[in-house]
Amino acid sequence: MKITVMTADEQIITLEVDSNESVENLKALLEVETRVPLQHQQLLYNGREMRNSDKLSALGVKDEDLVMMVSAAASSASANDMSFNPDGSAVNPGAFQQHIRRDSNLMAQLFQRDPELAQVVLGNDLNRLQDILRERHRQRADLQRQKEEELALLYADPFDVEAQKRIEASIRQKGIDENWEAALEHNPEGFARVVMLYVDMEVNGVPLKAFVDSGAQSTIISKSCAERCGLLRLLDQRYKGIAHGVGQSEILGRIHVAPIKIGNIFYPCSFLVLDSPNMEFLFGLDMLRKHQCSIDLKDNVLRVGGGEVSVPFLQEKDIPSRFLDEERYSKQTSSSGAPVLSGTTDNRNHMSTGGQSSGGSHAEKAQGPDFEVKVAKLVELGFGRDAVIQALKLFDGNEEQAAGFLFGG
Fold first, then answer.
1. Which of 274, 283, 267 is nearest to 199 (CA)?
2. Is 402 in the same domain as 270?
């Protein structure tokens, strides 16, 4: 039968051999053709090494099949390139990176199991790759040490109080880990960030995106926003004070009444004016009560005037990224009629954007100037744009976890 042998330097050699020929004899023929000593040859068929004692027929080699030949020295060098240092870093990080990149199945598994490492492999920072590999080595060592400690506890003296405390702590941690895994499997949306509630309004004829916060006692407008809306001339400075909450901010005064437009209807509204450049306009509980508003999360709308007007809450893409910073900085509380607010009005956490209870400050991370960059990078991997956006939202803007989720899907 006729077989083709391709050498490491891409030389093509065609040989006539018997199907019952041994691999050792085949190497002897190749030694004549290539001048590579038999003991320095390594032959591969379908990716598997061919041992000297094997028969070609037993390995499944057929007529017109291809056999790869690499030198043992090259194979040894390749193996060395893929080896690791004692600290877990790669001996040859560049070769390690290219090897992983070329294997699509391995990349898919890596995105599933370790999206952070997968993203670094796709990047160009070899120093970062080495750091991640060292970190993973330390984590494996810690895990192994933990397992050894748990095993040692099984044989600990049952009357040793400290040993029993460690066993109890270990059992408790296992319960927590199992609970986390169950939540990740059955309730993954619980790990997604929550987009805060914004609606389109007009204040004194100026269009604004209002942050709806039923946990904030009073409606708030910043000094710069009030000036832009032409309302600063109405500021009553007799209501100066300090607003206390999770943080505090100076109250510059109060605007007693001004028109706001929700949908197609105008409503009177009063505001506290705060010296808070990072918070623009917050529609608080005082006006929500006054105008009989209801937050309908099923239909995702704000109903005003007992239902005479319904305006939809804005989608994340419609909320300017700079507005999301308001959720971290609107930490004040308010109280109608009081010139100085002492924080005794039972909204200790509320003014921080529906407060800490809604996790607002964490919600800004995925949506920002780099959000579209993340979307574009994942779309380039072959995923649909809508699926990419949903995955990024699900994993709080974490590009690596989103990619792992998409690969796994």
1. 283
2. no
Percent of the chain with pLDDT over 90: 20
Q: Which of 54, 78, 102 is the last residue of a domain?
A: 78
Looking at 247-398, list the stretches that DSSP marks H as alpha helix, in order from N- to C-terminal side. 285-290, 321-324, 326-329, 371-380, 385-394
Tell me the HSE value of 380 on the side-chain side, using a 13 A CA sphere: 7
In a shared domain, residues 258 and 307: yes
Radius of gyration, CA atoms only, the chain: 33
Q: What is the pLDDT of residues 306-354, one digit of tens each?
A: 888 999 999 877 887 776 554 444 444 333 333 334 333 333 333 333 3
Residues in the chain: 409
Higher pLDDT, 175 or 303: 303
Q: What CA–CA distances, in Å, run from 233 to 138, 254, 275, 279?
A: 63, 11, 15, 20
Same-domain check for residues 261 and 356: yes
Residue 124 in this model has a pLDDT that exceeds 60? yes
Report d(CA 358, CA 353) in Å as an integer.
8
Active-site positions read 213
Residue 186 CA to residue 381 CA, distance in Å, equals 27
pLDDT at 140: 81
Angle CA(183)–CA(184)–CA(190) in degrees, nearest 5?
70
Give the domain range for residue 10.
Answer: 2-78
Q: Which of 14-23, 154-163, 254-263, 279-288 has the lowest mean pLDDT?
A: 154-163
The DSSP code sequence of 58-77 is TTT--TT-EEEEEEHHHHHH
Q: Are strands 2-7 and 66-71 parallel, antiparallel or unpaired?
A: parallel
In a domain, 70, yes or no: yes
In the chain, the amino acid numbered 174 is K
Shared-domain flag, residues 384 and 255: no
For residues 352-374, average pLDDT: 48
Q: Work out whether strand 12-16 and strand 2-7 pair parallel, antiparallel, or are unpaired.
A: antiparallel
List the CATH number of the domain containing 67: 3.10.20.90
The pLDDT of residue 87 is above 80: yes
pTM score, two decimals? 0.43
Q: 211 is written with which tokens? A: 């942050």
Q: Outline where DSSP puts E strands in 246-347.
A: 248-262, 265-274, 281-283, 294-296, 301-304, 309-312
